[in-house]
Description:
Elements: H1 22-29, H2 39-49, H3 62-69, H4 73-96, H5 106-126, H6 132-138, E1 143-148, E2 151-156, E3 165-169, E4 177-189, H7 191-194, E5 200-201, E6 221-222, E7 227-239, H8 245-255, H9 262-293, H10 298-312, H11 317-334, E8 337-339, H12 344-347, E9 353-356, H13 358-362, E10 363-374, E11 377-381, E12 392-394, E13 399-401, H14 407-418, E14 423-427, E15 430-434, H15 437-447, H16 453-459, E16 462-466, E17 474-480, E18 499-505, H17 507-512, E19 514-519, E20 522-525, H18 528-543, E21 547-556, H19 565-568, E22 572-584, H20 588-597, E23 601-605, H21 610-620, E24 630-631, H22 632-636, H23 640-646, E25 652-654, H24 658-670, E26 675-679, H25 685-690, E27 693-697, H26 703-708, E28 711-713, H27 718-758, H28 768-778, H29 780-786, H30 812-838, H31 847-866, H32 883-901, H33 903-908, H34 916-947
Parallel strand pairs: 9-23, 9-26, 19-22, 23-25, 24-25, 26-27, 27-28
Antiparallel strand pairs: 1-2, 1-3, 3-7, 4-5, 4-6, 4-7, 8-28, 10-11, 10-22, 11-12, 12-13, 14-15, 16-17, 17-18, 18-21, 19-20, 21-22
Amino acid sequence: xxxxxxxxxxxxxxxxxHTYSVAKTLETLGTNPQSGLDTENAAQRQQHxxxxxxxxxxxxxxxxxxxxxxTNIMLIMLIVVxxxxxxxxxxxxxxxxxxxxxxxxxxxxxxxxxxxxxxxLGYLQxxxxxKALAALKKLSSPQVQVIREGKRQEVDxxxxxxxxxxxVEAGDTLCADGQIVEGSHLxxxxxxxxxxxxxxxxxxxxxxxxxxxxIGDRVNMxxxxxxxxxxxxxAVVTGTGMDTELGKIAEMLQSVETEETPLQRRMTQLGxxxxxxxxxxxxxxxxxxxxKAGWGLLQELIEISLSMAVAVVPEGLPAVITVTLALGTQxxxxxxxxxxxxxxVETLGSVNVICSDKTGTLTQNKMVVQEVETLEGNxxxxxxxxxxxxEFICSEAKSSxxxxxxxxxxxxxxxxxxxNDAHLSQEGNDWNIMGDPTEGSLLALAGKAELQxxxxxxxxxxxxxxxxxxxxxxxxxxxxGSQTGERLPSWQSQGDHQYLLFTKGSPELILERCQYYxxxxxxxxxxxxxxxxxxxxxxxxxxxxxxxxxxxxxxLEQIPDATEAEEAEQGLVWLGLxxxxxxxxxxxxxxxxxxxxxxxxxxxxxxxxQVTAQAIAxxxxxxxxxxxxxxxxxxxxxxxxxxxxxxxxVSVYARVSPEHKLRIVQALQKRNKFVAMTGDGVNDAPAxxxxxxxxxxxxxxxxxxxxxxDMVLLDDNFASIVAxxxxxxxxxxxxxxxxxxxxxxxxxxxxxxxxxxxxxxxGVPLIPLQILWMNLVTDGLPALALAVEPADPxxxxxxxxxxxxxxxxxxxxxxxxxxxxxxxxxxxxxMRWAFNDAQQPGHDPESWKTMVFTTLCIAxxxxxxxxxxxxxxxxxxxxxxxxxxxxxxxxxxxLQLMLVYVAPLRAFFNTRMLTGEQLVICLLFSSLMFVWVExxxxxxxxxxxxxx
Length: 948
């Protein structure tokens, strides 16, 4: 009997359905498993609950993103400068009909062009659409089979409502959460939610589960986005749309706010410092000049102030940083890391914690047999993945053995192949499994003993089987004995029967049915003492986090009937135990060690069981045997402040849910950790987005995890994260390198311009257009070359840079100020001499400005060569290690001379032709900059030597 609900009495979706019995769930939802809902009831619920879809919240529009680019304080100042420059041109045009530059609004147009270019660069970086939610939507299948009004019918997935009875079978992707009401051999892969590759067996429970049961252990429930691997079932829908477990993940994704990266924060700080400093100097110049010369020079002082404002802003810096980050992404691709968001390149250099999922990230995501134990001995098995290459090393003899010499071991391998429904295939250099990964591992194991599935299946044709069920916990096949006339294997004597029954399954249940054991070609009675030995071996493997199977066989006179399984599977011959696990990637242990040497703490966060997580973490060196592991149930009971205390001590989290992963990352960030989070499943997406660097797996990763990430590992290799982190450190180091180069010049420009009226010179030494040329070309090209400077070989042997550190940290600020002052002293000295010389009869009275312009530009070339290293002299460095720098210096010098000696350029940039003597003087003064920086290195070296 289906209940009739009014809109306000419809059951709430947000209930702990896994704690309910089937009867209580059906009663609460007012539905019947045989007849389902009627059309009217379904329509009523549809109106109340809404469509079964993931909802997206509105984000910033493209227009909002574009407008946000022009809120940068340096761009605002440039806009103001451009407007004032345009107003001055209008005043000049009205007063005299022309402007000093000859071309009206030249400076205004140039400045606005730079502003627009920088704005567009920022816009292009931010307009990558958030596609994580769109990828989540794809996980819902388009149609589903339901029972409504007692009839089986198909409806569109968005039209499902709580209380609907859905029918699922192998191959389906579920599109709603529900509780199982009927089922047979149902197995579901829930990696989308839990991250674990193995299928989960689902059952009907007469009693509900505990409230705090993790998602991976809710065997009475099915979830949206998961895949049915085997069996069939009938389930009642308990949650749709945003009220599903997948919907909760979508909600968490939308709640995560994107924060500024360290580089973005540092650039904001840089802008604030430069603009504030510029305004202070402008005020000093205007006030000082007015007090000294009166209001008559106000327009000239305003022009000087405009030049100072343009000089203080490193217009080329955003473009240089963007190109540097882009070059970093190219280098990272070569190291199997694809960067999705440019700022992530530099951000990697600050990472001091890597939170990694286990399955597919630290491990191979492939079941691999690690150990085999028979009553004849214990054998460790080498090899990786499903490739049938490896050795059997006898634990007692400490040496490899040939399996054909040992009857029980060879018989065990035969059984693993013949009691098997999987297939092992090779594509190029890759070995893949079609079927269950557990069965696939047995095929790879046999391949290591040169036993091929295709050959054995021809020799021993399958003539019957008793399939695996969750109740039986075992599988048996009946094969006809070898009829090929070939030499029989070492374990099978000539007197063997025509048929053989091969069995594998739960070790305890298989052992109960065994009366004998194999030794060589002989079969002996199995004693209670030997059974105890087998159980001890089974327990030992389980404690080492191995998944254990027992294998046995039995000769048969005839093929048993399908109903005779219980009788046929008695009196078996025990062969041994096989222990397998999703083994660690071989290269990860070294990567973890490298992380620790670099001051980076690796943390495992997994949905797998605690014992498995502990074993893998110990093998990789993430934890020691005595370290505490935090489980999902324990974590659930902790408040956020308590969790923030725990994260300092815990390096492995097991059986956690998506909410837990997000909380862990947030807790680490509260402790001022800079967190990279790796993951491949849908369940990882919120934590990936919350982390400072989200790293998705390229091969096994879902679309959702990739779209939520900043970086994608193309080879799913944890070691590639370490390589990418190294590149991030190199990028940040080079950014600091060219920032000190660019800003040292800018400070020199500002002081030089400010000094002109204060030392009694008339006119502006540098117009805005010339300053833009210096900041974009003569500074920009060498800066780009410095961005590809080779890495320091010891860069991964020191701690990561603090994400909170200022851009001026570690003496960078003092270097910029010091070099700026030296720049200005050299240039002001030249300017004073050149101004006096220009006043001589027959000399061009404006030539002094071109000399100042040329000296500042060419001095930067020497600075670039010296700035490659803070400690080594230029003569000590390999000149061929950065050919880009020499090319940039030569090209920039030629371009600067063209501005002086090519008439059209000279007219456009308001320069004057210099005599040979004037050019030589400019070159001599310019070289002083190189000499000073090299002299500083010698003094610093002597100081350190004396100090030690």
